[in-house]
Amino acid sequence: MSQPETDRARNRVKTGLIAAAFALSAFLLAWAGGALAARLARDNLAEAAGPRRALYVAGLRSELTRHETLPAILALSQTLRRVLHAPDDPAAVAEANLYMERIADRTGAAALYLLDTGGTTLAASNWRRPDSFVGRNFAYRPYFREALAGGSGRFYGIGTTSREPGHYFARALEDGALTLGITVVKVSLAPVERSWAQAADPILVVDANGVVILSSNPDWTFRMLAAPTAAEQVRLADTRQYEGVRLRPLDWRPGPDGTASLAGLPDRYLVTGSAVEGTPWRLYLLSSLDGVDLARDIGRTAGVGLTALLALAWLYWRQRRRTRLAWRRAAAALEGQVAARTAELVAANQDLHRAQDGLVQAAKLAALGQLSAGITHELNQPLAALRTFSDNAATFLERGRLDRVAENLRHIAGLTERMARITGQLRTFARRSDNRPENVPLARAIDNALTLLVEKTRRTGAVMVIDLPEGLPAGGQVRCDPLRLEQVLVNLLGNALDAVAGAPVRRVRVTAGPAAAAGRLRLDIADSGPGIAPADMPRLFEPFFTTKAPGLGLGLGLVISAGIIRDHDGSLSAANGPDGGAVFSVELPVGEQA
To answer: What is the pLDDT of residues 325-344, one digit of tens each?
Structure first.
């Protein structure tokens, strides 16, 4: 073999090795780019799921806590105590049945009933129904045993009489150290499940036995994530928790890194969970991983593009090593070609980054847009707009219309700012208060309360007049727990808006000034409604008294508000204004000087 042939063979081998090196580099960069993009997208997906999951948990907790104190309130009833002292008195039993039937209608509870210490039902709100609880014995239920032993109990299960699921709250009715009986409230969580049916991402709640008790998909309810142990089977049979229901396994296939897939659904999901406070339950939110897969594909494309850029650079460097004469002849053409291809790759990388940014932003907005079906009409409009703009952005991105993508993303950004203001105040308002008095500016508390009532104010068509004069003592600050003060203001302002609905003049006026007693501030909330009837005035602050139609009020708002103000060394009173309408006055100690 001649020397030139030997040199050509060596060059072919060298070129082959270099090509193999670039192919390996392309594979490694594509893998690394895809993995990095997928990890970032998955982190963003998990972060976006947190606020939505917290709102679903808060909604479920709100539905439970709305009835949690009802057994304790029922335990104060003299009507129920008379039945326990005289269980064979038909008149006393009839009065108790009617009393609990009326309270159930007001509160929306599924059932209220009274048990003696042996577990037998003496009176119930469903006494008219064929499946009435009256005369039935529930001593086998855990809520009865817990209440009898420790004063209170709670339990979730299928009703052995009604065959309807519900959450049970029980409280001992005591006379000194003697337990007379047990009051029980059954709450249906079906409204929560119905509101979840509209959620974009699947939701499920699992109890301590691994049974799905609530879900956005009705087919998943009362299925188990894993087969029950022998001990769990014995416990379920003893408590008859799911009697009459076949607990089938849910085709739940967990994957690595907190992912899962379910039978009948085409997507894989990122599974994130939160404990439901006050219960042994855990709420899981399933977020589709389609966006993560798309980000991985984009990252791989970027890795291949980077390898191509390196290959071009290497070719350019190799060409420079050619003879100077050949370089001079081809330099201009080669530089133009390299510059053009480099510009194309830079533009492709820029498009890639914009697509990734748009994907992350759309995922966050979609996550925030699926808060809860019942959050208020204020969120429905921006949610619908978010869906339209994000779909448009995806369509324009596929078509390469980047100008229209940017326009849609700007609209989306404006909507998210609006939603952030609403959900931020909702989350603050829903947070459990520590009940620690501090200096609270009245102006700030009123503003926060009106934020929560903005949709109701608009729907009522009322004019809200806020008159806080300058020069109030302590700069217009009072001593109170801020969240509890906002709770009182939301209740009083909401009642005022209800009062003016349908009135010829719809106006709510909020004024403040020094109270008659030294060291106190007075806040008056006056409406232009029909006022308070003289017969209703003495009963205004009694539990379960309300002038609203059934289903529109429990008759506990004023009682709770008065208790909050009283706990902070203040007072809440009501009167009719000189020009008509009702006036509710709150007096609280002025804020302390720093």
So the answer is: 666 766 677 677 767 877 87
**311 phi/psi in degrees, rounded to 5:** -65, -40
Pair 224, 247: CB distance under 8 Å: yes
Find the range with the poorest average confidence among 370-384, 522-536, 546-560.
370-384
442, 580: one domain: yes
Q: 270-321: per-residue pLDDT in tens?
A: 888 899 988 889 999 888 888 777 767 887 787 677 777 776 776 777 777 7
Nearest to 358 by CA among 388, 382, 394, 392: 394
The span from the CA of 128 to the CA of 107, in Å, is 18
Q: How far apart are CA 137 and CA 146, in angstroms?
A: 16
3 state SS of 434: coil
First and final CA of the chain: distance in angstroms? Answer: 99
Give the integer Cα–Cα distance in Å for 466 and 585.
15
* H helix count then E strand count, the chain: 15, 20
The helix or strand, by DSSP H or E, that contains position 231, with its residue range, turns out to be: helix 230-239
* Residue 316 domain flag: yes
Pair (49, 177) in one structural domain: no
Domain carrying residue 109: 70-187
Mark out the alpha helices in 321-376 (DSSP H runs).
324-369
Cβ atoms of 367 and 44 within 8 Å: the answer is no
Phi, psi at 550, each rounded to 5°: -55, 135
Whether 62 is covered by a domain: the verdict is no
**Quick check: pTM over 0.85?**
no
Q: Are 459 and 506 in contact (CB under 8 A)?
A: no
Query: What gap in Å lies between CA 492 and CA 564, rounded to an integer?
Result: 13
Closest by CA to 590, choosing from 446, 440, 488, 467, is: 440
Please tell me whether residue 160 adopts helix, strand or coil conformation.
coil
Residue 34 φ/ψ region, left for φ over 0, alpha for ψ in the -120 to 50 degree band, beta for the rest: alpha
Q: What's the rounded Cα separation, in Å, for the pair 41 and 46?
A: 9
User: Do 525 and 544 share a structural domain?
Assistant: yes
**Which class for 227: exposed (0-12), middle (13-18), buried (19 or more C-beta within 10 A)?**
exposed
Q: Of how many residues is the chain composed? A: 594
